[in-house]
Design goal:
3 domains; Nucleotidyltransferase, domain 5; 7-stranded mixed β-sheet; 21% strand
Length: 504
């Protein structure tokens, strides 16, 4: 028996699954929460990496207590992308990690972009725009706002890298998660000297050497092995960002499949054999964590929007589902721009929620709930349409995240996307992806020709009971509404910028 731990450290909690390579199923799991730091200024989103460690310890011990610990051969770690974990020369965390959803770095984005010669030049140099969510502007923010802390900096890691560092003592970074830093040229898979120079040349010494995604980060430190009751020979695979691991966990490792994650935030992405560079910068040109590529769009507002309405209107999830089903497609012309926390795509860090179409009929809880769900789904569809425009073909969309558990919401997704949709039997895609990458890495120790596809093909099962086809009349309605939604979003950008002054 060969068992593998998959760890997903997200914004809210750590999830752990134990995957059995022989039976091709998850045998056990564990979970523990952690929290954001409260009462920070608007736009600042931070966490204490020590909480990730505590939560991971708790979740791993829960999971391994249910299985034969001697059978555990490997661990794969998934972590929230883009976060900046600054370490000093002793490997101690200098300050709280700034997260993917932190939008306090807009000035730093502008400074780096200008140093590169403008937005088009930035895309030409590294394949991506410099966005507030990415890691590079967070490093410049530290230099400009906390010079004393910047002077202590000796190692730059991402959240999943920090967990790997805790497990193995090795500072290690693989192509997938590194491609989301805006420090890497995704075409050459090398650190960008120009971006580094725009921040501070000294940080070149603080970045780990880049490694391919099929490499081993290391094995467990002796004290960690004792803590978990595992063998010190347990390997830790390269791991990756949560989207990269989610791709593995949903079998999105070959062309033709798209994954859409309807969680607190939303992502939509598809595997590609070659880099996909969007000249408009709306699709992130990421690498995946199997040595391929993962063009991706991220929105910051998905189930957090539906949850705001559910709590405001005092509904449970069943009532929310019923409410959605009671209103026709298009919500009677009521449209929501759901930028409750600003937005990453389109890049509107000062955005807010905006309704248009309120009248005597639509000023109604059911209509508002459906419009909210339609609004975030059309935000996701913006990304799917752009992927297709860039030549990424998809015949099926695999769904993960809390939003996909609602049958009414799934039908809206199928209708808005104009594509068949289906959920996964194992919904913890990122954690499962971590376990599968670890299984791949372990298998390659004895057979270097083992492919990631051979590992995932029988492990990522679809829940066929959730499969839905688009309704043709609703699909046509949403095609019209999508064009209006996109146009409205673009026209509102200057309004949001002007309104931001009143929030200060």
């Amino acid at each position: 028996m060969a068992l593998f731990l998959g760890i997903d450290s997200g914004t809210q909690s750590v999830k752990v699954v134990v995957y059995d390579m022989e039976s091709k199923r998850v045998l056990a799991d564990g979970r523990a929460p952690h929290a954001l730091i409260e009462d920070l200024p608007a736009g600042h989103m931070e966490q204490n990496p020590g909480q990730w460690i505590d939560a991971m310890d708790t979740a791993i011990l829960q999971a391994v207590s249910q299985v034969d610990r001697e059978a555990i051969k490997g661990i794969g770690v998934s972590g929230q992308q883009h976060g900046f974990v600054p370490l000093d020369k002793r490997g101690t965390v200098i300050r709280a990690a700034k997260l993917w959803c932190d939008t306090s770095t807009t000035e730093e984005c502008t400074l780096i972009t200008e140093a590169l010669g403008g937005e088009e030049a930035a895309i030409a140099k590294i394949g991506n725009r410099i966005l507030p969510g990415f890691t590079a502007p967070k490093i410049l923010w530290l230099k400009r706002n906390e010079p004393e802390n910047f002077s202590k900096l000796s190692h730059i890691l991402l959240p999943h890298d920090y967990l790997n560092y805790y497990l193995t003592g090795e500072a290690f970074m693989e192509f997938g998660d590194a491609s989301g830093t805006a420090l890497m040229d995704v075409r050459s898979r090398t650190w960008s000297n120009e971006v580094i120079a725009a921040i501070d040349p000294v940080i070149a010494d603080y970045l780990p050497a880049l490694s391919s995604s099929d490499q081993t980060c290391g094995t467990l430190r002796s004290e960690i092995a004792r803590k978990y009751g595992l063998s010190q020979s347990v390997l830790v695979s390269a791991g990756g960002g949560d989207n990269m691991m989610g791709a593995i966990g949903t079998g999105n490792v070959v062309s033709g499949v798209a994954t859409a994650s309807f969680g607190t935030s939303g992502t939509i992405y598809a595997y590609n054999d070659a880099p996909v560079i969007d000249p408009r910068g709306e699709i992130a040109a990421f690498c995946d964590s199997t040595n391929g590529y993962l063009p991706l769009m991220c929105t910051m507002n998905v189930t957090k929007v539906s949850e705001h309405f559910r709590k405001l209107l005092e509904m449970d999830h069943a009532q929310l589902n019923t409410s959605i089903e009671s209103v026709p497609a298009g919500s009677g012309g009521l449209v929501l721009l759901p930028y409750f926390e600003g937005e990453r795509t389109p890049s509107i860090p000062d955005g807010s929620g905006a309704f248009i179409g309120l009248n005597g009929k639509t000023m109604n809880p059911d209509y508002m709930v459906r419009a909210a769900v339609e609004g975030v789904t059309m935000g996701m569809n913006f990304g799917l349409q752009r992927l297709k425009e860039l030549g990424v073909s998809t015949s099926e969309v695999r769904l993960t995240g809390g939003g996909s558990r609602s049958s009414a919401w799934r039908q809206i997704i199928a209708d808005v996307f104009g594509s068949p949709v289906v959920s996964m039997l194992e919904d913890e895609g990122a954690a499962l992806g971590g376990a599968l990458q670890a299984a791949w890495c372990w298998s390659r120790q004895s057979d270097p020709n083992v492919s990631i596809q051979s590992i995932t093909e029988s492990a990522t099962a679809l829940d066929e009971s959730t499969r839905l086809e688009p309704n043709e009349s609703a699909k046509a309605r949403y095609e019209e509404l999508q064009a209006f939604h996109t146009s409205l979003s673009k026209s509102m950008e200057p309004v949001f910028e002007k309104h931001a002054a009143f929030k200060r």
